[in-house]
Specification:
6-stranded parallel beta sheet, 10-stranded mixed beta sheet, Alpha-Beta Plaits, Dihydrodipicolinate Reductase, domain 2, 16 strands, Rossmann fold, elongated, 3 domains, 437 residues
């Protein structure tokens, strides 16, 4: 059979990594795919820039449409990022009958419903394993390996920058701002780090995972998102004293009322597997009704880990080139006519446990006022710590409470009342908790 020809849009870290892997492992990849796979053309903003890959034998251009319109090209690798130009290019590629492989999580989370509809109409594939958790094959696991299960819940560390920051705060007792600056210096965080530390990147990925897990449309706008900026070194230390580790998690859970979609800092028991995922590594824990808990761990970014997922998608597409399009694995795991718009729960309707930290005036009666408010809203306390003032001159002391599972709207109302007490200084800090059982 004649070789499958690939056109690459974008020669940055991921594009260069994909070319390296396709060239280095060409023989093994051909054995698995059943046909030789070669990169014949690639597009980049600059043709003279030094690259991480060897482009010998590859025709370079600055015009992506030259590649998309090339009748010899079978598969387009979209690795330029962003969700505007990339969307237009993918739409044109699909219209030309090209299969597409992308690592673009924002594009899939925001425009995937439209893109997959276009691809289905043209009988082509859009593969996106690299869009979530880099080299970890979590999308393939959900779409195929766990297809016999009802997914009860999944929880993941799906942003390496945030995990690096929390790991450094815990292990070295450093403040958030100092660790963030180091993450930027090391290249883990961008000059504008909001995408990572405010949870947007993780929410894009959670949107995709939940859609595949539950057969629902992609609905990024319905994800509850809370960033890392409110987590302090003191919270990290207090959590450890109580036997917990703080991680920034993406959580999807199916309940009788609908599906929870949320990204936020979370206290989890220190013995849980996810609690021990450190640095820039990613991990996703998936609970299936038949298989039970399964953990997927690995590098969530980087040239070759991400290229590993891109190339795996290329192999899948090549394997499918000679099959009936009706028998391809559906883009979102469920047949297109079976996608169900199950309600996504509002944040106030979520039930979970809570960690509260409040700065209270060091005098008798304050705790009594706080506990009365909690009791009024039917919220039970599981554990409590009263700490010494952070500085001797301070008249307020930190009080840490672990609350049993309750409805978020009840906790919101209680916190609002507690903050109005004259003896309470500053904002009440609330971090959600999950046992991950």
């Amino acid at each position: 059979m004649k070789p499958v020809k690939i056109g690459v849009l974008g020669l940055g870290v991921v594009g260069g990594g994909a070319i390296n892997v396709l060239k280095r492992n060409a023989v093994e990849i051909a054995r698995r795919a059943g046909r030789e796979i070669i990169v014949t053309r690639a597009c980049a903003r600059s043709l003279n820039k030094e690259r991480i890959c060897n482009t010998d034998g590859i025709e370079l251009t600055t015009d992506p449409l030259e590649i998309i319109n090339d009748p010899e090209i079978d598969i387009i690798l979209e690795l330029i990022g962003g969700d505007s130009l990339a969307k237009d290019l993918i739409s044109i590629a699909i219209a030309r009958g090209k299969h597409v492989v992308t690592a673009n999580k924002a594009l899939i989370a925001l425009h995937g419903n439209e893109i997959f509809e276009q691809a289905s109409a043209k009988g082509v594939m859009v593969a996106f394993e690299a869009a979530v958790a880099g080299g970890i094959p979590i999308i393939k696991a959900l779409r195929e390996g766990l297809s016999g299960n009802q997914i009860e819940w999944l929880a993941g560390i799906i942003n390496g920058t945030g995990n690096f920051i929390l790991t450094e705060m815990r292990d070295k007792g450093r403040d958030f701002e100092a660790v963030l600056a180091e993450a930027q210096a090391l290249g883990y965080a961008e000059a504008d780090p909001a995408f990572d530390i405010e949870g947007i990147d993780a929410a894009h990925k959670l949107t995709i995972l939940a859609s595949i897990a539950y057969g629902i449309p992609l609905q990024f706008e319905k994800v509850y998102i809370e960033g890392l900026t409110q987590v302090t070194r003191e919270d990290v230390n207090y959590a450890q004293e109580l036997g917990y580790i703080i991680k920034h998690l993406g959580i999807a859970r199916k309940t009788a009322k609908g599906i929870e979609l949320r990204v936020h800092p979370t206290l989890i028991p220190h013995r849980r597997l996810l609690a021990n995922v450190d640095g820039v590594m990613n991990a996703i824990l998936v609970q299936g009704d038949a298989v039970g808990p399964t953990l997927y761990y690995g590098a969530g970014a980087g040239a070759e880990p991400t290229a590993s997922a891109v190339v795996a998608d290329v192999v899948d597409v090549v394997r499918a080139l000679t099959t009936d399009p009706e028998n391809h694995v559906p883009h979102l795991a469920f047949q297109a006519n079976s996608i169900t718009d199950i309600p996504i729960l509002a944040a106030e309707d979520i039930q979970t446990a809570y960690y509260l930290r409040l700065n209270a005036e060091d005098k008798s009666g304050v705790l009594s006022e706080v506990t009365k408010i909690l009791a009024k809203h039917q919220i039970s306390i599981e554990a409590m710590l009263q700490k010494e003032p952070l500085e001797k001159s301070m008249k307020h002391v930190p009080i840490i409470m672990i609350m049993k599972t309750t409805l978020e709207k009840k906790m919101n109302a209680a916190i609002e009342e507690i903050q109005k007490l004259a003896a309470i200084k500053d904002k009440v800090i609330r971090i959600r908790m999950e046992t991950l059982k």
